[in-house]
Amino acid sequence: MERDALSAVIVAAGMSSRMNAFKPLLPLGESTMIRTLIGTCIAAGVGRIVVVTGHRADELEAHVADLPVECLRNPDYETTKMARSVRIGFDAVVGRCERVLFCPADMPLWRPSTVRALVESGSLLAKPTYRGQNGHPLLIDASLIDPVLERLDAEGLSAAVKATGIPMAFIEVDDPGCVLDADTPDQYARLCSMSQQG
Length: 198
Fold this sequence. Notes:
By secondary structure, this protein is an alpha/beta fold. It has helices spanning 33-43, 57-63, 82-93, 112-120, 145-155, 157-162, 185-197; strands spanning 7-12, 27-28, 31-32, 48-53, 70-73, 99-104, 125-130, 133-134, 138-141, 169-172.
């Protein structure tokens, strides 16, 4: 089986309860949060993009149906933590890529150059940082996907990644978008402002 150099798993199954709005479908510039993030993945050279859906899955999947993505559902999104959605996405790419990006759906404004910096670092695990603040996406080498999956359900993604024993490389980038999310209306307003700035 031919392997992609880079895959991406976008987790978009949650109910966005803190925002009181469904974040993936919120407007962002001339697009939406989820379509912006998918477009950035494509621009970064990602070969396979898996979007894990749950809440409002029919609507979200229809919204991205014209894009080169694979949508997989977490049927238990209401009763499980994010780790369940991560597992669904990672299970779909394990053995089929050299590296995978973990991309939260509410952090859509990182730049393709940030992914290039992560890949070019040669690290097995890498995260971008901007002015000392850790961001996303998280780059994971394919050799670590199975070890992460072994601990994922019990410990969550961060702990499972740490348990691999591989040190995280923090790559400083000139990319404020890699640290901006949309957990609250104020944070969403900042994203919209940055999007308008180009």
